[in-house]
Amino acid sequence: MSLAAAPSDRPRLFGAAMLCAAAAIGAAAVAHPAIVVAAALGAAFVVLTLRSLAAGVAAFTVLIFLEQVPTISSSGVTFTKLAGGVLGLAWFAVIARRDAKVPFLAQRRPLLAYTALVLLCWTLASAVWAPDPHTATTTALRFGQGVLLLFIVFSAIVERRHLVWVLHAYIGGAVLTACIGLAGVTQAEGVGISSSDRLTGGIGDPNELAAILLPAVSFALFLLVTTRGALRRTLLLAAAFVCLIALFRTESRGGLAGLAVMLAAGVALAGPVRRQAVALVLAVAGLGLVYFTLIAPPEALSRVTAFSAGGGTGRTDLWTVAYDVTRVHPLAGVGAGNFPIVEPGYAFQNLNLPRFDLIVDTPKVVHNMYLNVLVELGIVGFVLFALLIGCAFSSAFGALRACAGTGDRETELLVRALLIGTIGMLAAFVFLSAQYEKELPLLLGLLAALPPVAPRVSPVAAVTVRQDDG
Question: What range defines the domain where residue 361 resides?
Answer without folding.
Answer: 34-469
